[in-house]
Amino acid sequence: MHRLSARVVHVSLAVSLTAISLAPVFAATYFPSQNGPWYLLAGHMLTHLFDPAYDYSQHYAANLHAIPHILHTVLVSAFAVIVPTLWAQKLALSVYVIGLPLSIFYFLGAAAPKQRWLGFFSFLMIHTYCFYRGYHNFSLSIPLYFATLGCWLRALDRPSGVRYVVTLVLVSLTYLSHLFTFGILAASMGWYLLCTTRRFWYSTGTAIRFTWPGWLMMLEFVWLNSQINTWVDTTERVWLAPHTAIEYFFRKYFYTTSIPVYLIGAACSLWVIGLLGVAMYRAFRSDRPIWDALLSRPWLSLTCILGICYFFLPWKFLNWHYVNVRLVPFIVGLSLAAVGHHLATTSRPRLQRWYIGSCAVSTILISVLMFGEVRTMNGMLDEYTAAIPYLPRNSRLLPINSVNPQVGQVRPLTRAYEYYHISRGGVNGTGAAIYNTLVPVRYRVYPDDSTLPKYQDGFEVAELDGLLRYYDAILIWGYDPALVENLTGLGCETAFSSKNLVLLTCPVEDAAAESLHARTRTESTESLPAHPPRTTSISPPTSSK
């Protein structure tokens, strides 16, 4: 009876903390993740690629390959069929918020079933930096990693065709969410089998037998990148000094936009660090050799290996940023399983109560604080998007951020111009589609200086005049009266202005176009014909291999 009541309390508390953790996602109209609008637009375009109200198909094409960074985008597109796009994003983000603690509880149920309560720390892993940075595909891969490991452990323990198929599906979804996570998943399976069987070839073969769909899709992805890519930067390699890496383990994980949230998360993580330290001490103080002691504890040894990798992996590599920091959630989750094995032979109800209580209180405080942070950042986004109704439909838009305010470690306005294209169609030259093998849409013609040239600070009047031939509208965020004066002197007209935002429409080239241009500016949300194309020629895309 006591066990049943404890289980009911734990389930009720987990459900309540999940609901509280969802509150910041639904706190405002726009979820203020830095890169989120990139992938939101990509998902919106998948749903509306051939919608006559938009001109997406003129500029973009579907990129239907097994790309290992598209699952969140596809989820947004699927939800956008039944709800508005901004709500579709919230539903897709909710899959992560609900799935992360659920998957870690599920994983611990297979790896350390008597210590499943350790999973309450997972609620502190939700509102972390990568989530607000806008790495939503990677964020979604974290619960998929733990769910797949949990299902796989059960398939090893009680093999069946259904468990095998479900594991293959979860492996495929993990790959489609993020290649980095798929690699860690395959390595985790192989290492666990090596520790438990001490048979290298059996371990390797079994791991491949459970992960082969991901490897097949990876071969296709490698082939795709050998044909054309625009995102790989082979010169970008940055490593952190050891003391900086230690600092970033906490600061680049728990610190989003709020220092109090950072301090709460870092302080509560002392639970895991302390318990893990005790587990390592007991493992190493035995008479057995250290290596043998580690091999007998697969989750502890895997935690140690990933911890060492954290210090040796680069900070930036091939245009991937925060490479080593992305190991942190896996290190934390696996350490919970390692701690669970250490506690399996003891009963510590007081420790359990203090642990769960501190995790629950910390989760509530973090959710309340992030709710306020999201509302504050949404105020900035409300002002930034105020000119949407005044943008002519299907315009070529040049966004210029004269300033780009930072809230904590997040700059919520960095990609906010994409909301204009979500609502009004059109194109710019800096969307996520430029990463042509990382998103499920690509530019038909890749933007360069002969198609959609970039603005640079300090442009002279003649250079600004050259820009106007390529664009229908210019969006300027930040008070820059000299730039606005120069553009209006070149024939641009102010369609909307506020304290920090100016939307200018560019001059057109003939009377008929001018008449249509004037009509489109007077409309707000009605569907209008596409803006007439410019007369400049379009050059073929430049490929890089």
TrEMBL record:
Compositional bias (Low complexity): 533-545
Keyword line: Membrane, Signal, Transmembrane, Transmembrane helix
Any signal peptide, and if so, which residues? 1-27
Q: Which domain of life is it from?
A: Bacteria
Q: Where are the transmembrane segments?
A: 66-87, 93-113, 134-155, 175-194, 206-224, 259-281, 293-313, 325-343, 355-372
State the residue spans of region: Disordered.
Answer: 515-545
Q: Does the keyword Transport apply?
A: no
Instruction: Supply the name of the protein.
Output: Glycosyltransferase RgtA/B/C/D-like domain-containing protein
| Biological source species | Maioricimonas rarisocia
Q: What taxonomic ancestry is recorded? A: Bacteria, Pseudomonadati, Planctomycetota, Planctomycetia, Planctomycetales
